[in-house]
Amino acid sequence: MKKEIKSNVSWVGKVDWELRHFHGHEYSTHKGSTYNSYLIQEEKTVLIDTVWSPFAEEFVENLAKEIDLQKIDYIIANHGEVDHSGALPALMERIPDTPIYCTANAVKSLKGQYHQDWNFQVVKTGDKLDIGNGKELIFVEMAMLHWPDSMATYLTKDNILFSNDAFGQHYATESLFNDLVDQCDLFYESMKYYANILVPFSQILRRKLDEVLALNLPIDIIATSHGVIWRDNPMQIVNKYVEWANDYQENQITIIYDTMWNGTKRLAEKIAEGIGLADPDVVVKIYNLPKSDVNDLITEVFKSKTVVLGSPTFSNSILHSVAGFIQLVKGLKFKNKKAAAFGCYGWSGEAVKVINGLLKDAGLHIIDDGFRNQWNPDEDQQAKALEYGMKIAKA
Question: How far apart are CA 137 and CA 127, in angstroms?
Answer without folding.
Answer: 8
